[in-house]
Amino acid sequence: MESEDNPVVSSVASADSADGAKNTLKISSSSLNKELKMGAEYTALHLIPSPGAIPRIPGVDIFGITLPFNGVAGGDLISYVNFQDRFDLDVRIRNASVQGREDIVQELQKLRNTGGILVADVAGHEFTDAMRALMLHQAFHTAAQYEMDLNGEITVRLFEQVNTRFLKSKTLRSPAAEKDLAAFITLIYGEISHTGRFRFVSAGHPPPLVFSREYDRFVEITPDRLISYPPIGLQPGEDYADARHFERALGYKEHYTVNDLNLMGRGDILFLYTDGLVDAFSRFNLGHFERTVSRFKDGNAGEICKAVLGERDTIQEQCDDISLVVIKRN
Protein backbone atom coordinates (compact mmCIF):
# COMPACT_ATOMS: atom_id res chain seq x y z
CA MET A 1 0.00 0.00 0.00
CA GLU A 2 1.23 3.55 -0.90
CA SER A 3 1.97 5.91 1.95
CA GLU A 4 -0.61 8.70 2.45
CA ASP A 5 2.33 11.11 2.57
CA ASN A 6 3.60 10.23 -0.91
CA PRO A 7 4.65 13.63 -2.39
CA VAL A 8 3.82 12.67 -5.98
CA VAL A 9 0.29 11.65 -5.09
CA SER A 10 -0.14 14.75 -2.92
CA SER A 11 0.99 17.17 -5.64
CA VAL A 12 -1.27 15.56 -8.24
CA ALA A 13 -4.19 15.67 -5.85
CA SER A 14 -3.45 19.31 -5.07
CA ALA A 15 -3.35 20.19 -8.75
CA ASP A 16 -6.64 18.41 -9.36
CA SER A 17 -8.20 20.18 -6.39
CA ALA A 18 -7.00 23.57 -7.62
CA ASP A 19 -8.39 22.96 -11.11
CA GLY A 20 -11.66 21.77 -9.62
CA ALA A 21 -11.88 24.85 -7.42
CA LYS A 22 -11.32 27.11 -10.43
CA ASN A 23 -14.03 25.34 -12.40
CA THR A 24 -16.38 25.47 -9.44
CA LEU A 25 -15.66 29.19 -9.04
CA LYS A 26 -16.41 29.81 -12.71
CA ILE A 27 -19.66 27.89 -12.50
CA SER A 28 -20.66 29.64 -9.26
CA SER A 29 -19.86 33.06 -10.70
CA SER A 30 -21.88 32.34 -13.83
CA SER A 31 -24.80 31.05 -11.79
CA LEU A 32 -24.60 34.03 -9.47
CA ASN A 33 -24.67 36.50 -12.34
CA LYS A 34 -27.67 34.69 -13.79
CA GLU A 35 -29.45 34.76 -10.42
CA LEU A 36 -28.68 38.46 -9.94
CA LYS A 37 -30.01 39.26 -13.41
CA MET A 38 -33.18 37.29 -12.69
CA GLY A 39 -33.49 39.07 -9.34
CA ALA A 40 -33.14 42.48 -10.95
CA GLU A 41 -35.75 41.65 -13.59
CA TYR A 42 -38.12 40.28 -10.91
CA THR A 43 -37.67 43.42 -8.81
CA ALA A 44 -38.25 45.67 -11.80
CA LEU A 45 -41.40 43.75 -12.71
CA HIS A 46 -42.86 44.28 -9.26
CA LEU A 47 -41.80 47.91 -8.92
CA ILE A 48 -43.60 48.99 -12.09
CA PRO A 49 -47.38 49.22 -11.60
CA SER A 50 -49.55 47.55 -14.21
CA PRO A 51 -51.86 49.88 -16.17
CA GLY A 52 -54.83 48.35 -14.36
CA ALA A 53 -53.45 49.49 -11.01
CA ILE A 54 -54.01 53.17 -11.83
CA PRO A 55 -57.12 54.40 -10.00
CA ARG A 56 -60.12 55.12 -12.20
CA ILE A 57 -61.74 58.28 -10.88
CA PRO A 58 -64.58 60.14 -12.61
CA GLY A 59 -63.26 63.35 -14.15
CA VAL A 60 -59.61 62.63 -13.31
CA ASP A 61 -56.91 61.21 -15.60
CA ILE A 62 -53.75 59.71 -14.05
CA PHE A 63 -50.55 58.41 -15.62
CA GLY A 64 -47.03 57.79 -14.32
CA ILE A 65 -43.63 56.59 -15.52
CA THR A 66 -40.42 55.54 -13.73
CA LEU A 67 -37.12 55.49 -15.64
CA PRO A 68 -34.35 53.65 -13.71
CA PHE A 69 -30.88 55.12 -14.26
CA ASN A 70 -29.39 51.67 -14.80
CA GLY A 71 -32.15 50.74 -17.23
CA VAL A 72 -33.49 47.88 -15.10
CA ALA A 73 -34.42 48.72 -11.51
CA GLY A 74 -33.46 51.68 -9.33
CA GLY A 75 -34.51 53.37 -6.12
CA ASP A 76 -37.63 55.17 -7.38
CA LEU A 77 -41.10 53.84 -6.70
CA ILE A 78 -44.58 54.68 -7.95
CA SER A 79 -47.43 52.76 -6.36
CA TYR A 80 -51.19 53.24 -6.54
CA VAL A 81 -54.08 52.47 -4.22
CA ASN A 82 -57.14 51.74 -6.33
CA PHE A 83 -59.57 51.62 -3.40
CA GLN A 84 -62.51 50.33 -5.45
CA ASP A 85 -60.56 47.36 -6.82
CA ARG A 86 -58.24 46.63 -3.91
CA PHE A 87 -60.90 46.66 -1.18
CA ASP A 88 -64.52 45.51 -1.08
CA LEU A 89 -65.95 48.81 0.09
CA ASP A 90 -69.55 47.53 0.17
CA VAL A 91 -68.72 44.76 2.63
CA ARG A 92 -66.63 47.10 4.76
CA ILE A 93 -69.43 49.69 4.85
CA ARG A 94 -71.97 47.04 5.80
CA ASN A 95 -69.76 45.69 8.59
CA ALA A 96 -69.05 49.17 9.97
CA SER A 97 -72.79 49.96 9.95
CA VAL A 98 -73.54 46.79 11.95
CA GLN A 99 -70.89 47.84 14.48
CA GLY A 100 -72.38 51.33 14.72
CA ARG A 101 -69.20 52.93 13.35
CA GLU A 102 -70.74 55.72 11.29
CA ASP A 103 -67.41 57.55 11.29
CA ILE A 104 -65.83 54.67 9.39
CA VAL A 105 -68.86 54.40 7.09
CA GLN A 106 -68.42 58.04 6.06
CA GLU A 107 -64.70 57.61 5.38
CA LEU A 108 -65.31 54.48 3.30
CA GLN A 109 -68.00 56.23 1.26
CA LYS A 110 -65.49 58.92 0.27
CA LEU A 111 -63.14 56.29 -1.14
CA ARG A 112 -65.57 55.27 -3.89
CA ASN A 113 -64.32 58.22 -5.95
CA THR A 114 -60.80 58.54 -4.56
CA GLY A 115 -57.42 57.10 -5.53
CA GLY A 116 -54.10 56.96 -3.70
CA ILE A 117 -50.69 57.65 -5.23
CA LEU A 118 -47.31 56.99 -3.60
CA VAL A 119 -44.10 58.35 -5.13
CA ALA A 120 -40.86 57.53 -3.31
CA ASP A 121 -37.13 57.98 -3.89
CA VAL A 122 -34.63 55.75 -2.09
CA ALA A 123 -31.23 57.40 -1.66
CA GLY A 124 -29.17 55.83 -4.45
CA HIS A 125 -30.01 54.16 -7.75
CA GLU A 126 -28.33 50.76 -7.59
CA PHE A 127 -29.97 47.32 -7.55
CA THR A 128 -29.71 47.24 -3.73
CA ASP A 129 -31.74 50.47 -3.64
CA ALA A 130 -34.36 48.84 -5.85
CA MET A 131 -34.64 46.08 -3.27
CA ARG A 132 -35.24 48.68 -0.56
CA ALA A 133 -37.88 50.32 -2.76
CA LEU A 134 -39.56 46.93 -3.11
CA MET A 135 -39.47 46.51 0.67
CA LEU A 136 -41.10 49.92 1.04
CA HIS A 137 -43.78 48.90 -1.45
CA GLN A 138 -44.62 45.80 0.58
CA ALA A 139 -44.49 47.62 3.93
CA PHE A 140 -46.76 50.36 2.61
CA HIS A 141 -49.45 48.05 1.26
CA THR A 142 -49.35 45.80 4.33
CA ALA A 143 -49.83 48.83 6.56
CA ALA A 144 -52.55 50.18 4.23
CA GLN A 145 -54.50 46.95 4.68
CA TYR A 146 -54.23 47.31 8.45
CA GLU A 147 -55.27 50.97 8.31
CA MET A 148 -58.33 50.15 6.24
CA ASP A 149 -59.34 47.41 8.67
CA LEU A 150 -58.86 49.68 11.67
CA ASN A 151 -59.97 53.11 10.44
CA GLY A 152 -61.62 52.69 7.05
CA GLU A 153 -58.96 55.00 5.60
CA ILE A 154 -55.20 55.50 5.40
CA THR A 155 -53.98 57.82 8.16
CA VAL A 156 -50.64 59.45 8.96
CA ARG A 157 -50.01 56.67 11.48
CA LEU A 158 -49.05 54.45 8.54
CA PHE A 159 -46.10 56.72 7.75
CA GLU A 160 -45.09 56.97 11.40
CA GLN A 161 -44.86 53.18 11.46
CA VAL A 162 -42.98 52.92 8.16
CA ASN A 163 -40.53 55.61 9.31
CA THR A 164 -39.88 53.72 12.54
CA ARG A 165 -39.45 50.43 10.74
CA PHE A 166 -36.87 51.79 8.29
CA LEU A 167 -35.13 53.65 11.10
CA LYS A 168 -34.68 50.53 13.23
CA SER A 169 -34.08 47.83 10.64
CA LYS A 170 -30.54 47.07 9.50
CA THR A 171 -32.04 44.99 6.70
CA LEU A 172 -33.97 47.92 5.28
CA ARG A 173 -31.23 50.50 5.69
CA SER A 174 -28.41 50.86 3.17
CA PRO A 175 -25.45 48.69 4.28
CA ALA A 176 -23.02 51.25 2.84
CA ALA A 177 -24.61 54.28 4.49
CA GLU A 178 -23.43 56.18 7.50
CA LYS A 179 -25.72 55.97 10.50
CA ASP A 180 -27.45 59.30 9.96
CA LEU A 181 -26.62 60.40 6.43
CA ALA A 182 -27.45 58.41 3.29
CA ALA A 183 -29.87 55.75 4.56
CA PHE A 184 -33.15 57.50 3.92
CA ILE A 185 -36.15 57.65 1.61
CA THR A 186 -38.15 60.67 0.50
CA LEU A 187 -41.79 60.06 -0.29
CA ILE A 188 -45.08 61.73 -0.98
CA TYR A 189 -48.42 59.99 -0.61
CA GLY A 190 -51.63 61.68 -1.65
CA GLU A 191 -55.24 60.92 -2.42
CA ILE A 192 -57.07 62.59 -5.30
CA SER A 193 -60.87 62.75 -5.38
CA HIS A 194 -63.30 63.30 -8.25
CA THR A 195 -63.70 66.91 -7.06
CA GLY A 196 -60.03 67.65 -7.72
CA ARG A 197 -59.11 67.74 -4.04
CA PHE A 198 -55.62 66.37 -3.32
CA ARG A 199 -54.67 65.59 0.28
CA PHE A 200 -51.08 64.48 0.88
CA VAL A 201 -48.25 63.75 3.30
CA SER A 202 -44.66 64.60 2.39
CA ALA A 203 -41.43 63.27 3.90
CA GLY A 204 -38.58 65.32 2.45
CA HIS A 205 -39.95 64.99 -1.09
CA PRO A 206 -40.04 67.62 -3.85
CA PRO A 207 -43.33 69.54 -3.52
CA PRO A 208 -46.19 68.96 -5.98
CA LEU A 209 -46.56 71.35 -8.90
CA VAL A 210 -49.94 72.61 -10.12
CA PHE A 211 -50.34 73.89 -13.67
CA SER A 212 -53.32 76.17 -14.22
CA ARG A 213 -54.96 75.91 -17.60
CA GLU A 214 -56.56 79.35 -17.13
CA TYR A 215 -53.25 81.11 -16.41
CA ASP A 216 -51.15 78.78 -18.60
CA ARG A 217 -48.43 78.39 -15.98
CA PHE A 218 -47.48 76.79 -12.69
CA VAL A 219 -49.31 78.51 -9.87
CA GLU A 220 -47.74 79.56 -6.59
CA ILE A 221 -48.74 77.45 -3.60
CA THR A 222 -48.45 78.96 -0.13
CA PRO A 223 -45.91 77.28 2.18
CA ASP A 224 -48.57 76.35 4.74
CA ARG A 225 -50.05 73.95 2.16
CA LEU A 226 -46.71 72.33 1.36
CA ILE A 227 -45.55 71.23 4.80
CA SER A 228 -42.91 68.51 4.61
CA TYR A 229 -41.08 66.45 7.22
CA PRO A 230 -37.66 64.75 7.29
CA PRO A 231 -37.15 61.80 4.94
CA ILE A 232 -38.18 58.33 6.06
CA GLY A 233 -35.56 56.58 8.21
CA LEU A 234 -33.70 59.61 9.58
CA GLN A 235 -35.49 60.61 12.79
CA PRO A 236 -37.79 58.83 15.24
CA GLY A 237 -41.10 60.47 16.16
CA GLU A 238 -40.94 62.90 19.06
CA ASP A 239 -43.10 60.75 21.35
CA TYR A 240 -42.07 57.30 20.08
CA ALA A 241 -42.26 54.93 23.07
CA ASP A 242 -38.89 53.27 22.36
CA ALA A 243 -37.11 56.47 21.30
CA ARG A 244 -34.50 56.30 24.07
CA HIS A 245 -33.24 53.04 22.58
CA PHE A 246 -32.61 54.76 19.23
CA GLU A 247 -30.98 58.07 20.04
CA ARG A 248 -30.10 59.86 16.82
CA ALA A 249 -27.65 62.64 16.12
CA LEU A 250 -30.32 64.35 14.02
CA GLY A 251 -32.87 64.52 16.84
CA TYR A 252 -36.59 63.75 16.63
CA LYS A 253 -39.30 64.70 14.17
CA GLU A 254 -42.77 66.13 14.74
CA HIS A 255 -45.94 64.25 13.83
CA TYR A 256 -46.87 64.09 10.16
CA THR A 257 -49.73 66.32 9.09
CA VAL A 258 -51.87 66.35 5.94
CA ASN A 259 -51.69 69.07 3.28
CA ASP A 260 -54.67 70.05 1.15
CA LEU A 261 -54.64 71.26 -2.48
CA ASN A 262 -57.36 71.69 -5.09
CA LEU A 263 -57.37 71.40 -8.86
CA MET A 264 -59.99 74.11 -9.16
CA GLY A 265 -60.61 74.27 -12.89
CA ARG A 266 -61.04 71.70 -15.61
CA GLY A 267 -57.76 71.15 -17.39
CA ASP A 268 -55.65 71.89 -14.31
CA ILE A 269 -52.75 69.47 -13.92
CA LEU A 270 -50.93 68.20 -10.82
CA PHE A 271 -47.39 66.81 -11.04
CA LEU A 272 -45.64 64.47 -8.59
CA TYR A 273 -42.01 63.65 -9.34
CA THR A 274 -38.61 62.67 -7.96
CA ASP A 275 -35.58 64.95 -7.95
CA GLY A 276 -34.06 63.12 -10.89
CA LEU A 277 -36.50 65.03 -13.10
CA VAL A 278 -35.63 68.58 -12.10
CA ASP A 279 -33.43 70.04 -9.38
CA ALA A 280 -31.34 73.13 -8.70
CA PHE A 281 -28.41 71.78 -10.74
CA SER A 282 -30.38 70.46 -13.70
CA ARG A 283 -30.25 72.11 -17.12
CA PHE A 284 -33.88 71.00 -17.45
CA ASN A 285 -35.38 73.61 -15.14
CA LEU A 286 -38.90 74.64 -14.15
CA GLY A 287 -39.06 77.03 -17.10
CA HIS A 288 -38.51 74.18 -19.57
CA PHE A 289 -40.98 72.06 -17.62
CA GLU A 290 -43.66 74.77 -17.69
CA ARG A 291 -43.27 75.55 -21.39
CA THR A 292 -43.51 71.86 -22.29
CA VAL A 293 -46.71 71.46 -20.27
CA SER A 294 -48.14 74.57 -21.93
CA ARG A 295 -47.56 73.06 -25.37
CA PHE A 296 -49.14 69.71 -24.48
CA LYS A 297 -51.79 70.76 -21.94
CA ASP A 298 -54.65 69.65 -24.21
CA GLY A 299 -53.35 66.08 -24.27
CA ASN A 300 -54.27 63.34 -21.83
CA ALA A 301 -52.17 62.55 -18.75
CA GLY A 302 -50.10 59.94 -20.60
CA GLU A 303 -49.30 62.28 -23.50
CA ILE A 304 -48.29 65.09 -21.14
CA CYS A 305 -46.10 62.75 -19.07
CA LYS A 306 -44.26 61.39 -22.11
CA ALA A 307 -43.84 64.88 -23.58
CA VAL A 308 -42.19 66.21 -20.41
CA LEU A 309 -39.83 63.23 -20.15
CA GLY A 310 -39.03 63.46 -23.84
CA GLU A 311 -38.20 67.17 -23.58
CA ARG A 312 -35.97 66.54 -20.59
CA ASP A 313 -34.13 63.84 -22.49
CA THR A 314 -33.26 66.29 -25.25
CA ILE A 315 -31.91 68.87 -22.79
CA GLN A 316 -29.97 66.78 -20.28
CA GLU A 317 -28.60 63.29 -20.09
CA GLN A 318 -30.14 61.13 -17.37
CA CYS A 319 -27.92 60.82 -14.28
CA ASP A 320 -30.43 59.53 -11.71
CA ASP A 321 -33.65 57.57 -11.49
CA ILE A 322 -36.58 59.65 -12.78
CA SER A 323 -40.25 59.33 -11.87
CA LEU A 324 -43.20 61.47 -12.92
CA VAL A 325 -46.92 61.18 -12.22
CA VAL A 326 -49.42 63.40 -14.02
CA ILE A 327 -52.90 63.98 -12.58
CA LYS A 328 -55.22 65.96 -14.85
CA ARG A 329 -58.72 67.12 -14.05
CA ASN A 330 -60.92 66.71 -17.11
Characterize the structure shown.
The protein has 330 residues and is of the alpha+beta class. Helix content is 38%, strand content 19%. The protein has 8 helices and 10 strands. It has helices at residues 7-47, 83-86, 89-98, 102-110, 127-151, 157-168, 286-296, 301-315, and strands spanning 60-67, 76-81, 114-122, 185-193, 197-203, 209-212, 217-218, 259-262, 269-273, 322-329. Strands 1-10-9-6-7 form a 5-stranded antiparallel beta sheet, with helices on one face. The protein has a 5-stranded antiparallel beta sheet with strand order 2-3-4-5-8. The longest helix has 41 residues, at 7-47. It is globular and about 55 Å long. The model is unreliable at 1-15 and 175-181 (pLDDT under 50).
Annotation keywords:
10 strands; 330 residues; disordered N terminus
Q: Give me the count of strands.
A: 10
Low-confidence stretches: 1-15, 175-181
Rg, nearest Å = 25 Å
Q: CA-to-CA gap between the ends?
A: 92 Å
Q: Total helix count?
A: 8
Which H/E pattern describes the elements?
A: HEEHHHEHHEEEEEEHHE
Q: Report the average pLDDT across residues.
A: 83
Biggest sheet details: 5 strands, antiparallel
Q: What percentage of amino acids are in beta strands?
A: 15-25%
Helical content, roughly? 25-40%
